[in-house]
Amino acid sequence: MELTQVDIDQCTRTQKTYVHRLGIAETYAHRVGITEIHYTEGVHLVATKGKAFWLLAAILSYQNSPVIKQTELKDFQLWELNVSENKTAVLTCRIDDDLPPLISQKIAITDFPLPYLRLIYFSDVLRLFSECK
């Protein structure tokens, strides 16, 4: 079964967290910085049912960038994935709804089943927006 918005809306609380790691050797991890991201059951549902572990990898890949480390984004990140009808997408990260994105990545093609997804990263855990209400 494909991921639906109903699936996402039903994710309101989480009891368990998961870990997604960069695929690098342990001997190099100290040079890279952050090499893993913790995420909730709702994000796990998106990654498994929506076949979107690539999205976790994309978000994790930005955690060591200067734009994250040297701004307020190190404490709070609002991530949004917007998928067009032609299956291209844009992944953005901002500090708040009222502010422009500080990170924007174009995705040439995706099979992600939803047109829009909102994730929030704070206290070192990536969550669905619905899990924060």
Could you name the CATH class? Alpha Beta
Distance between the termini: 26 Å
Strand tally is 7
The number of domains is 1
Helix content: 25-40%
Overall morphology: globular
Strand order of the main beta sheet, please?
A: 1-2-7-6-3-4-5
Provide the residue-averaged pLDDT: 87
CATH architecture: Roll
As residue ranges, the low-confidence spans are: 24-32
Given helix and strand content, the structural type is alpha+beta
Task: Give a short account of the largest sheet.
Answer: 7 strands, mixed
CATH topology: Nuclear Transport Factor 2, Chain: A
Protein name: DUF6876 domain-containing protein
Organism: Crinalium epipsammum PCC 9333
Domain DUF6876: 13-132
InterPro entries: DUF6876
